């Protein structure tokens, strides 16, 4: 890791813990900063804060007192989930204190190239798939970000001979100053997270931040099928590589006559790819384009694409039991992701859906519910989803308390040949800490069926 002096003897506030806050606080302490950690959870219920306290780091728990701004902090490293209208954050910005996220630290210390992947949907699959292709191509990749170990922790161990493949959210990308991935990927941009960003324009701008510091030595991989995304990234200084699932391009990654091509070189027949769902073709094209920047061979790409079956919690096959196939798509935290999952099946579907209410309705799902014979709802959005299902003509709609109870109800109202699909179309935070927790509970409930 680069031994930077940026934070040496500087007062830095780490606001909010979880994995990113713990990593940032420990790293800043190593870099010689005077670190204060502030977390909303009381100290007695906060093992992360207790651990930092044992390292000699100052910890203030049980709220976010505005008086902290009087302590002369020179930087704030904010947990991505804390909104910018939080009084402490808003007050810091008003005072001109830089408010960063932990990925900025990762970039500052990393000796490895960073490949940053963002977008509304497909980030996790693209990140994992690219990691596997780079591994097969002997490129020494490391995986980081929302998908696993936080970026600032991975960056501490990364060498110049490695590549960091990092999944990035809009929340993280709002808190960067110098962060510059050598390769940036924007899978797609749709409406999401308006409860945090306020407008779709602000959300898109946060995503496009991924390329703001790139130079002509860097690369930006962009979805050519989205005109608004093409327009928003037109002024980048990076070399643009387009991908498209719908048209043949003069260069970049595209599909033609049943084959994937890159820069007019035929790579693989679509029929040989085992990752299910038309929506995954975007993710595959992104990964192929990024791999080709590093001169990965076609043999390595083919090896992965003929064996890679997907990511846990993203249309993940769980089991077949009594003629029903169960799929865990807990990472479907918005309608668009659920549309993709529904489109992946031709069989009758029993759909399990619901979660955090962000203020939107679900009527855009109606055209995609044609194969859904039964809906089982849970969470804050249960009534909204019920209304949508009624408009779609679904006769069998049931409400339960949670995902665990949804599984036996779904099974009871299914038949042999049906798909039972958890694809919530909502974030998990009304009932579960993460979408992974929600998915794991679903998997456990499926295996308990007798």
From TrEMBL:
Protein origin, superkingdom: Bacteria
Organism, scientific name: Bacillus seohaeanensis
Described purpose of this protein according to its UniProt entry: Cell wall formation. Catalyzes the addition of glutamate to the nucleotide precursor UDP-N-acetylmuramoyl-L-alanine (UMA).
PANTHER family, sorted: UDP-N-ACETYLMURAMOYLALANINE--D-GLUTAMATE LIGASE
Cellular localization per UniProt: Cytoplasm
The protein's name in its UniProt record: UDP-N-acetylmuramoylalanine--D-glutamate ligase
Pfam families in UniProt: Mur_ligase_C (PF02875), Mur_ligase_M (PF08245), MurD-like_N (PF21799)
Keyword line: ATP-binding, Cell cycle, Cell division, Cell shape, Cell wall biogenesis/degradation, Cytoplasm, Ligase, Nucleotide-binding, Peptidoglycan synthesis
Enzyme class of the recorded protein, top EC level: ligase
Pathway entry: Cell wall biogenesis; peptidoglycan biosynthesis
Homology family: Belongs to the MurCDEF family.
Main localization (coarse): cytoplasm
Annotated GO MF terms: UDP-N-acetylmuramoylalanine-D-glutamate ligase activity
Catalytic activity: UDP-N-acetyl-alpha-D-muramoyl-L-alanine + D-glutamate + ATP = UDP-N-acetyl-alpha-D-muramoyl-L-alanyl-D-glutamate + ADP + phosphate + H(+)
Annotated ATP binding sites: 119-125
Domain Mur ligase C-terminal residues, every copy: 313-426
